[in-house]
Specification:
The chain is built from 1 helix and 3 strands, in the order βββα. The chain has one domain. The protein has about 80 residues and is α+β, with helices and mostly antiparallel strands. The longest helix has 22 residues.
């Protein structure tokens, strides 16, 4: 029987009440382009750069920390 796992690979940070597709949302996600996993940060309205408001930073930092921890945990589970 095949075993399955559930893994969080994307977190969205934004103002309470804004829809997830709002331009005010910042996406923090794990990506892998074949050379190993890394954390990517993007915004729905931005192309090439992100603009972080000071009050957003603690939440974005927490999201990045959570996903980086997930990468380390995933690497440990491979061995």
């Amino acid at each position: 029987m095949t075993q399955y796992t559930i893994r969080t690979t994307r977190l969205t940070v934004g103002p309470v009440g804004e829809p997830f597709f709002s331009q005010k949302q910042t996406n923090v996600e794990i990506q892998d382009e074949g050379a190993g996993e890394f954390v990517a940060i993007s915004q729905n309205h931005a192309s090439g750069r992100i603009l972080i408001e000071p009050e957003e930073w603690p939440h974005i930092k927490d999201a990045v920390s959570e996903l980086v921890g997930s990468i380390f945990k995933n690497e440990e589970n491979k061995h």
